[in-house]
Amino acid sequence: MRLFYAPTSPFARKVRVLIAEKAIDGIELVNVSPFDAPAELVTSNPLSKVPALILGDGRALYDSPVICEYLDQASGGTLLIPLGGDERWQVLRRQALADGIMETCLSLALEVNRRPENERSPDWIEHWCRTMRRSADALETEIGSYSASIDIGHIATACALAYLDFRAAQHVDWRTGRPELAAWFGEFLQRPSMLATQVPE
Ligand SMILES: N[C@@H](CCC(=O)N[C@@H](CS)C(=O)NCC(=O)O)C(=O)O
User: Fold this and answer.
1) DSSP state of 198
2) Measured between alpha carbons, how far is 172 from 37 in angstroms, rounded to an integer?
3) Which of 20, 104, 132, 197 minimizes the number of CB atoms within 10 Å of its CB?
4) Could you report the per-residue pLDDT of 120-178, keeping only the tens digit for each?
5) Which atom from ligand 1 is nearest to the alpha carbon of 63?
6) Mind listing the pLDDT tens digit for each residue in 110-128?
């Protein structure tokens, strides 16, 4: 299998952390720049987004929740996404909240880093910052109820917070007033899977 990824993509990092946590072998990582729409990526994923997973028979899977679910089930072992019951919906909702933070933070990063200053919208920037702060408040409220054993909710949450640090540190001071979340994140960051997938300096 081949995984198209970008080193800075939090969605791709989520998949890479899952691969590391489950010790899945045999996946070749292919570093691409999705915003350049490289032919090798768009022939598999017309959206030209990473991550995209190419299976052994050439079929492509995207986006990150689909890839995570596929790899989780195909690799066997302890499932990081429960197959059913209330637990499944809770874990998937947590992943959705974290993915939403990533999406909002990506919108902010594109506005701030790729748009000329005179074309940027302060209203949108403020809107996205409010969304990220509100979502961080929700995480602070529920982080204490995350289970001791990890699941995709933990992984997605950690990747989203790391992405806030990477792309939105000047806009969203998410640690202030959220001590439980900050402590949880500090500890989770020490996992080998997180250390191995850090954004390069
Ligand atoms: N919902 C998608 C989001 C993926 C995504 O937005 N990836 C970004 C990189 S962080 C991308 O490839 N963007 C390229 C583009 O929008 O052209 C997922 O979960 O995989």
Assistant:
1) P
2) 30
3) 20
4) 999 999 999 999 999 999 999 999 999 999 999 999 999 999 999 999 999 999 999 99
5) 20
6) 999 999 999 999 999 999 9
Q: What is the residue extent of each domain of the chain?
A: 2-75, 85-195
Are 25 and 12 in contact by the 8 Å Cβ rule? The answer is: no
Topology of domain 85-195 in CATH is: Glutathione S-transferase Yfyf (Class Pi); Chain A, domain 2 (1.20.1050)
Q: Of 11, 106, 107, 197, which is best to mutate to test ligand 1, by the most ligand atoms within 8 angstroms of its C-beta? A: 11
CA 79 – CA 119 distance, rounded (Å): 46
- pTM value is 0.98
Distance CA 81, CA 29 (A): 23
Ligand 1 within 6 A of 95 CB?
Answer: no
Give the residue from 36, 53, 48 showing the smallest Cα distance to 2.
Answer: 53
Q: Which CATH superfamily is domain 2-75 in?
A: Glutaredoxin (3.40.30.10)
